[in-house]
C-alpha cells in the first residue's frame, strides 16, 4: 500500500487544542500509503494537541495558514477536539481555506468536532454527515442530515465520530484521495 498515494499531498488544518489521536492516526495512515502531509495552522511555529482533557504533545507547523494554497493539496484533514475547530471557525482565512477544498471537489475529512468548521464554511446543507454527538443539533440546524455511523461519505465530505473511528476514517480518506478527482458539484 506504500505507493497508493505517492505524489499526493494532504493539508492538515489545526490550531492548539486538537485531539492528538485524530491528527496522528490519519497522518500516519496517509504517510504509510505514500502521501506527504503538511500541518497548516494560523500559528506559525507549533501547535499543541490534547488527549481529551489533558494537554498533549507539540507538533511543528509546516506552513502558516496565510501562506497555504488549497490548489496545491489533494485533500484536507480536519481533526477534532473541542478547542481546535471552535477557534478555526472564527477565523475567516481558515473558513475560506476549508470552503475552497469543497468547491474544488477535493476530499475533506472531518472527525469528532471537526465538522464545526464545515458548518461555518457553509458546506453541509443537504449532506449526510456524522460527528461527535454534541454537534448533532448544530449540523442539523445547518441543513445536514446527521447519522450515528463510524464513517460517512457524502461526495467529497468524509466524517467520523471519535478517536475510535480513526482506522475506518483513515481508510475512507485514503480511498477518496486514490480515486481520480471529480468536478465539484456545488
Keywords:
three-stranded mixed beta sheet; 6 helices; Rossmann fold; alpha/beta; 26% strand; disordered C terminus; seven-stranded mixed beta sheet; single chain; 186 residues
Write a brief structural summary.
With 186 residues, the chain is α/β, with parallel strands linked by helices.
Question: How does this model look, in words?
Answer:
The protein contains six helices and twelve strands. By secondary structure, the protein is α/β, with parallel strands linked by helices. The chain has one domain: Class I glutamine amidotransferase (GATase) domain (Rossmann fold, 3-Layer(aba) Sandwich). The strands form three sheets. A seven-stranded mixed beta sheet has the order 6-3-1-7-8-12-11, sandwiched between helices. Strands 2-4-5 form a three-stranded mixed beta sheet. A two-stranded parallel sheet has the order 9-10. Helix 1 packs across helix 6. It is globular and about 35 Å long. The chain starts with 8 loop residues before the first strand and ends in an 8-residue tail after the last helix.
In terms of per-residue confidence, which ranges show pLDDT below 50 for 5 or more consecutive residues? 182-186
As a whole number of angstroms, the C-alpha radius of gyration is 15 Å
Mean pLDDT: 95
| Total of domains | 1
Distance between the termini: 32 Å
- The CATH architecture can be named as 3-Layer(aba) Sandwich
CATH topology: Rossmann fold
Overall SS class: alpha/beta
How many beta-strand elements? 12
Shape: globular
Q: Which superfamily, in CATH terms, is the homologous superfamily?
A: Class I glutamine amidotransferase (GATase) domain
SSE arrangement, N to C = EEHEEEEEHHEHEHEEEH
Broad CATH class: Alpha Beta
Taking the sheet with the most strands, its summary is:
7 strands, mixed
Amino acid at each position: 500500500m506504500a505507493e497508493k498515494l505517492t505524489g499526493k499531498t494532504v493539508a492538515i488544518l489545526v490550531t492548539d487544542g486538537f485531539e492528538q489521536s485524530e491528527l496522528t492516526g490519519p497522518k500516519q495512515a496517509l504517510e504509510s500509503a505514500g502521501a506527504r502531509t503538511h500541518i497548516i495552522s494560523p500559528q506559525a511555529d507549533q501547535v499543541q494537541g490534547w488527549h481529551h482533557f489533558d494537554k498533549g504533545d507539540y507538533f511543528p507547523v509546516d506552513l502558516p495558514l496565510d501562506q497555504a494554497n488549497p490548489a496545491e493539496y489533494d485533500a484536507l484533514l480536519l481533526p477534532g477536539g473541542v478547542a481546535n475547530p471552535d477557534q478555526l471557525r472564527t477565523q475567516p482565512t481558515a473558513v475560506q481555506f476549508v470552503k475552497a477544498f469543497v468547491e474544488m471537489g477535493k476530499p475533506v475529512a472531518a472527525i469528532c468536532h471537526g465538522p464545526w468548521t464545515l458548518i461555518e464554511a457553509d458546506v453541509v446543507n443537504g449532506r449526510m454527515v456524522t460527528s461527535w454527538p454534541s454537534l448533532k443539533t448544530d449540523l442539523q440546524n445547518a441543513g445536514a442530515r446527521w447519522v450515528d455511523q463510524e464513517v460517512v461519505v457524502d461526495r467529497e465530505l468524509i466524517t467520523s465520530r471519535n478517536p475510535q473511528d480513526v482506522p475506518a476514517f483513515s481508510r475512507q480518506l485514503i480511498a477518496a484521495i486514490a480515486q481520480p478527482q471529480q468536478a465539484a458539484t456545488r
